[in-house]
Amino acid sequence: MIFFENLLAGNSVLIDFRESVRMHVDILSSISHKVVKLVTSSTFDTITRHEHEEVNYYSMMAMNPTMNLLIQASKKVDMLLLLTLIVIILSGCPAFAFDEQAVAALVDVKMAQKSSFMEVVTVAGKLSHIEYTQPDVRLEALPSPLPSLAFIEPELKTYGSLKEIAVNHFRRDGAGPGGLIFDLASPGKVRDLLAYQSLLLEGSFNGGWSVALADENLAKLDDNILLGALSSSPSGIFSLAPIVAAINLSRCRYLVFRLDGVSGTFGLKRAVFSRIEAENTTQPLSAWLWDSKMPANSPLKLLERLKRHQISKLYMQINDDLEQFAPFIKEAAREGIAIWALDGSPDSVNDISPLLRRIEAVAAFNRNHPSSKFSGFQLDVEPYLLKDFSLKREEYSKKYLEMLNAANLHCRSGKFLLSAAVPFWFNQLPVNGRDLSWETVRRLDEVVVMGYRTDYSELLEITRTLLAAGEKLGKPVMLGVELMPVPDEHHDVLTMVPANSPGALLLGGVYWKKIRSYNVPGSRLSFALLRKELPILLKKIPPFSSFKGWVLHSVEGLEQLP
């Protein structure tokens, strides 16, 4: 530790290190493991980010006292020396390894040349796959606190024909609309208001004003959707329900106050978006089952397992032989357990015919077995597993909706319900002027969100837009919980750079440079190692009327439960 202590003391001898880094690598490597031991494992849990979030190494250092010492040392020693030490310390953790040769062998040349970014994914310490992406051109959507979001004396700007003639006094000059605009988010961003039910405005308004909202697309058109007229009373409440079909509330840009008269006064004191939280009630448990042999070979054992864990709905993977499931479905019905058929593949968005044949087979089975019917059909279609999905997000999103439309028609004809398992981030995909989450929920009888987080606060944060969509559309939403073991993942994000860039790597015929890294520990996604915490989560009820229970992934994982 003398070497490390000298470093923190700013020993001038060490400054020469920048001229002879290689001579000290062995020494640094030997102490790096000691330093890493001082950095608790919780530090690395703290710095991890979920999919597509970056790690800021300087922020990471400040999260632990030992790492903070390194930052303080930067005031006394050469920055190059300090950064070199940090890199070596981090390299002592296998998760940060990057095998250039292995990555080069894995790169798809055509995909790489169409991409702006590549994300190299290492699973359980082994190179797994590469994700190819283009930059997201949409504005960032800021989430909003629940149950309310308040703006006190918001800063307003005039627009159109409105002119300010004195403090809080305005008139319209010339033709055309005019009024005041409040930016709901910081410049270049939008605000997610989908979870809110009403808008309260407090202040003094005279002269005939109306209030409206503009989403991201409407703002580009200088257009908005009317909420109602402002009276001269000190406050007014406006419901957001009437405008949900006309505006994308999950990506709102402006609150607009239009002067309808010739002149008027306007003194807004407070604007509050709020919701009435749904009352907490006990919700049923559901589960997925992937082993289609289990219902036919061990029906009594399976039913006993479902009853023991109080599972009231089972999404069961089917195959071409539906007759083998008839006895199990009949016995499950006697126990009050609903059985849903489950099927789909990533390529179903490109060729839906195999999936439609399965839906038709379920319809025929139900007609032939009136006492042992499937209650519904759930789609397990994950087009984002196709390697070019990130390069064709809007195209695949439209194909996904076309698939839902076709499946919906067939399920209606068969007189059973349609469900789908979807990822929480569908709200990030634009389609038809809205988001894929909204358009998906609109076409389904129910939706199961694969939230897969062990922290309740994080789970609620990432699924709230889909829960809010279900609330607005009157559709039930369930949240998936992972029980099966999930390995740790490490992600390295590379961006395309000119050939002469320092540290550029030639991969797939173009040059790349690593710009950030992040970890996704399995313990953040799965309860496989957190069995005692699972019952705590299952007792929580998200404050949305759309929430209709938890779905466990999966029956196979139930074996590990106490």
Description of the structure:
With 562 residues, the chain is of the alpha/beta class. 32% of the residues lie in helices and 29% in strands. It has 19 helices and 28 strands. It has an 8-stranded parallel β-barrel, surrounded by 6 helices. Helix 16 links the parallel strand 23 and strand 24. The N terminus is likely disordered.
Features:
562 residues; alpha/beta; six-stranded antiparallel sheet; 19 helices; globular
Question: What's a quick, concise take on this entry?
Answer:
The protein is an alpha/beta fold and 562 residues long. Helices cover 32% and strands 29% of the residues. It has 19 helices and 28 strands.
Portion in beta strands: 25-35%
| Class of secondary structure makeup | alpha/beta
Question: What's the average pLDDT?
Answer: 84
Uncertain residue segments:
1-71, 73-77, 87-96
- Write out the strand line-up for the largest beta sheet, numbering strands in chain order: 16-17-18-19-20-23-24-28
Report the biggest beta sheet as strand number plus sense, adding barrel if it closes. Answer: 8 strands, parallel, barrel
Rg from C-alpha positions? 28 Å
Report helical residue fraction.
25-40%
State the assembly state of the protein chains. single chain
Name the overall outline.
globular
Count of strand segments? 28
Q: Can you count the helices? A: 19
What is the straight-line distance between the termini? 46 Å
Write the layout of secondary structure elements.
Blueprint: H1 2-9, H2 21-38, H3 41-47, H4 57-62, H5 65-73, H6 79-91, H7 100-106, H8 109-114, E1 117-123, E2 126-133, E3 140-142, E4 148-152, E5 157-160, E6 162-166, E7 169-172, E8 178-183, E9 189-191, E10 198-206, E11 209-215, H9 216-220, E12 225-230, E13 235-239, E14 252-259, E15 263-274, E16 285-289, H10 294-297, H11 299-308, E17 311-317, H12 326-334, E18 338-343, H13 353-368, E19 376-379, H14 393-414, E20 417-423, E21 430-431, E22 434-435, H15 436-443, E23 446-450, H16 456-473, E24 477-482, E25 489-496, E26 505-507, E27 510-520, H17 522-525, H18 534-538, E28 547-553, H19 555-558
Parallel strand pairs: 3-9, 16-17, 16-28, 17-18, 18-19, 19-20, 20-23, 23-24, 24-28
Antiparallel strand pairs: 1-2, 1-25, 4-15, 5-8, 6-7, 7-15, 8-14, 10-13, 10-15, 11-12, 11-14, 21-22, 25-27, 26-27
Helix pairs in contact: 2-6, 13-14, 14-15, 15-16
